Amino acid sequence: VNSVNSENQAWDFDFDRQHIWHPYTSMNQAFPVIGVESADGCELTLNDGTKLIDGTSSWWACVHGYNHPKIISAMSKQLNMLPHIMFGGITHTPAIELTKKLIEMTCKPLTKVFFSDSGSIAVEVAIKMALQYWQGIGKANKQKLITIKRGYHGDSFASMSVCDPDNGMHTMFGDAVTKQHFVKAPQAKFGEPVNSGDVEALRHKFISHHNSIAAMILEPIKQGAGGMYFYSAEYLKEVRALCDEFNVLLIIDEIATGFGRTGKLFAYEHADITPDILCLGKALTGGYISLAATLCTDKVAKGISDSPAGVFMHGPTFMANPLACSAANASLDLINEGKWQSQVINLEKQMVAELEEAKCYTAVKDVRVLGSIGVIEMDHSLNAAELQPHFTELGVWIRVFGSVIYIMPPYTISPKQLTQLTTAMKVVAKMIS
Ligand code: PLP
């Protein structure tokens, strides 16, 4: 319903429908959207005053909830001092402070940080780093990537080239998407021993192609957009060992899993390994503003410096934006306070207990929980537009995709709010069973 908000701005939904693209939508078809006026804690307030509990953390980014006073205050201070400045030939304390924190929080060998403005670009940067590294050490033929199926790394061209090959993007954009090497996604689930066939298949790919492979890239432990699937930590260990054996760099994409989501600060810690290149985004700023980072080792940075270009060939306009860095500094201070650990453990316990019941609904294929991620997988694909109003009626903001009904709420959600989310998941799962 078109209306005006408290600032007298128009809620012109018709205009929105006719002129504004939303993610993965068509301009010819009406997709339902809700109008959000404000958000506080774990609650969204809609244009008509309705309140919804947020089960998505705004695509997995808003881990501290909305309107957190510490992040808002840090950003307000920065906004009044220096909201933006180019990063070519200039530096600033928000970037220096943030780099120190990232080096401290991630694993030892990662010492060099490149800031960009979105997860997809952090992945592009990681891929460029790997390619330039091999040029620098005289192996310019190592230019291909290897990855596992069902992955998602973003919508830009190089990142699409390592997304699941069956999702349509590869064929749709033809030769503009580079053909990379894929192996099937690991069979063994999180907590299970690795499937030896999967390791053999990967070894076989390495044996056949390692001379042309610059890096392996994957989402660690949790494949997100590929179906909220949690795989064996042992597989990740094997990947690291094979990369070492065959002289291939390992790029780990923690854009969705970083900063505690799976119960460890970084998901690679489940496997006790470290990457050569690490991609971060989403929760880096607590979800308040877009910022991403690609970290690499001294070894990778040296290779890039020794490459024919002599410099790393990337430099976005909004690189290391000070306002975004100030949000990230405040968000990481909150993470470093350490409360996230008990919060995520409690969320995990509660989701395990409350989602159990869904296992006996006829159309439920699987129920799984890891850290602060709760999933009900159905045996058929779901129509997001059709199910959306049911969730809204139940007072929650949950977006289904593929065949999964999932939640990844802010870590700060209360037990009562979480129960409202798990109840809504079960109600809808039962309704469509
Ligand atoms: N990598 C992973 C693992 C993601 O989950 C996403 C987004 O969902 C991306 C990369 C792309 O990030 P962005 O949407 O910020 O470009």
TrEMBL record:
GO terms for biological process: biotin biosynthetic process. The modification N6-(pyridoxal phosphate)lysine is found at K282. This is Adenosylmethionine-8-amino-7-oxononanoate aminotransferase. NCBIfam families: bioA (TIGR00508), PRK05964.1 (NF004624), PRK07986.1 (NF005940). One of its GO terms (molecular function) is pyridoxal phosphate binding. It is found in: Cytoplasm. Pyridoxal 5'-phosphate binds at G119, S120, D253, P316, T317. Homodimer. The keyword Transferase applies. The record marks Y24 as: Participates in the substrate recognition with KAPA and in a stacking interaction with the adenine ring of SAM. Its cofactor is pyridoxal 5'-phosphate. Substrate binds at W59, Y152, K282, G315, R399. The keyword Transmembrane does not apply. One of its GO terms (cellular component) is cytoplasm. Its main location: cytoplasm. It catalyses: (8S)-8-amino-7-oxononanoate + S-adenosyl-L-methionine = S-adenosyl-4-methylsulfanyl-2-oxobutanoate + (7R,8S)-7,8-diammoniononanoate. Its EC number is 2.6.1.62. Pathway: Cofactor biosynthesis; biotin biosynthesis; 7,8-diaminononanoate from 8-amino-7-oxononanoate (SAM route): step 1/1. Keywords: Aminotransferase, Biotin biosynthesis, Cytoplasm, Pyridoxal phosphate, S-adenosyl-L-methionine, Transferase. InterPro entries: Aminotrans_3, Aminotrans_3_PPA_site, BioA, PyrdxlP-dep_Trfase, PyrdxlP-dep_Trfase_major, PyrdxlP-dep_Trfase_small. Catalyzes the transfer of the alpha-amino group from S-adenosyl-L-methionine (SAM) to 7-keto-8-aminopelargonic acid (KAPA) to form 7,8-diaminopelargonic acid (DAPA). It is the only aminotransferase known to utilize SAM as an amino donor. Belongs to the class-III pyridoxal-phosphate-dependent aminotransferase family. BioA subfamily. It comes from Parashewanella spongiae.
